[in-house]
């Protein structure tokens, strides 16, 4: 997955920090994306996804660290039409038609793809003469996608592109993206929908509180949660001892209930049943959803 | 996976847009969009016509007779008024586009900020030219008599000097994040018009107002526009007024514009 290091990376972030007042939105991110990769930036709200994408697009600048896109500063890549984006917040003019919006944007590039072609590929050729203000949220999002297709960019960044869409809208949108990515485009999308990351990305980069907490294929990220949860009723549990058991990742105590995340559930269960007065011991396997929650939870590890 | 990867060499040869993205397609679509906005059309075309009819009817009724106010001076004043409304609303469109997030969308394209401002100024000035032309056509039909050269010269001067209002519109557009920016500017423009002598020449205003008049942004514009008609001495403070106000508004707009593009 690392790609050929001699050619410029599609995206290269080194030690990137960005704060807004007291909030460290991005707190030391290193990231390298090779040409042709389809990667998801996954994380809960406030994890730093939008801030990261903004810096990749040159809409924001890091306080420290460097951001390179295709071997050049983001603004240079944008001005050459090498990178394009579909943003959550990017506004459209309500009093232009869909086609006028595309024509206007096309006029800003040196050699754009034909207007009809991008309308077709984004699936909005049928509503080309409709005023943008009369389009649904999903249609407007596909218009933004059509605009992003105009320069035939090497890198396409999408920030939560399907938020607010219904199930059908999401499916249509992703099938358009997927068809497009098959032609070799590098795609980075931010999402807080696990299933989107799992279904459409080759690689998942999990962000939490401005840090990369996991980076790998969907299967690899899922493996991070290959452990299990052990629950039991135990009065006066000794947190330090439980946390010190082999394979234990976290211990949570709520009154008489203990919740232990562990890679070795057998060892924990054996200890609980032989060395303590624990009752009602349960062992539950994890799925990707749990991995996501475990890795992105804002709650600090009580054992830490 | 390597077969999907585009050749890097092909990426390096991509060029940036000439003129920072300023182009005719953009301009034409912007104008079409403006004409779709009923409020803009009313302010630019309908309102100046109504004012013209109102003032000239008054004149025929003799309400202002013997005041040295001719149909031609009134017409020029109203043309400046129309150009002011048009140029200001053209410039102030940036406010609506910022509110709708369009400026942010444009920052994902090769469009240079200076080219964007140039487009807005061009649209504002074209709109101003439309307004002046409409008023002058009304005047011609209504029997306003001037030498051909004076028609052209007064119109051209009114138009060029109305750049100050385009700068004012841009300034307001970056100052006010409101979608109703014109409702805020409207009263300001009314004060500019009355005190600057657009409808009633400054010499006919009460003395307190006469003292304020030279400081209005409209004063220099309308005085310069009427000069080819009225003759007499050219007062350099007129030119100073136009240049100073343009500099003030353009500088303020630039400062706010920089703040706007820095913030994300």
Walk me through this protein's architecture:
The complex is a heterodimer of chains A (304) and B (264). With 304 residues, chain A is of the alpha/beta class. Chain A has 11 helices and 13 strands. The longest helix of chain A has 15 residues, at 167-181. Mean pLDDT of chain A is 86; it is low at 300-304. Chain B is mostly helical. Chain B has 12 helices and no strands. Chain B has helices at residues 8-12, 24-36, 38-60, 71-99, 102-106, 113-141, 148-161, 163-175, 181-196, 207-212, 217-230, 236-262. The mean pLDDT of chain B is 85. The A-B interface holds A 7-8, 34-36, 54, 57-60, 70, 78-82, 84-85, 87, 89-96, 100, 103-110, 144, 147-148, 154, 182-185 and B 1-6, 8, 11, 14-18, 21, 23, 25-26, 29-30, 32-33, 36-37, 97, 100-112, 264.
Give me a quick take on this structure.
The complex is a heterodimer of chains A (304) and B (264). Chain A is built from eleven helices and 13 strands.
Return the CATH class of the largest domain in chain A: Alpha Beta
What is the overall silhouette of chain A? Answer: elongated
Radius of gyration over C-alpha positions of chain A, nearest whole angstrom: 23 Å
> What is the number of domains of chain A?
2
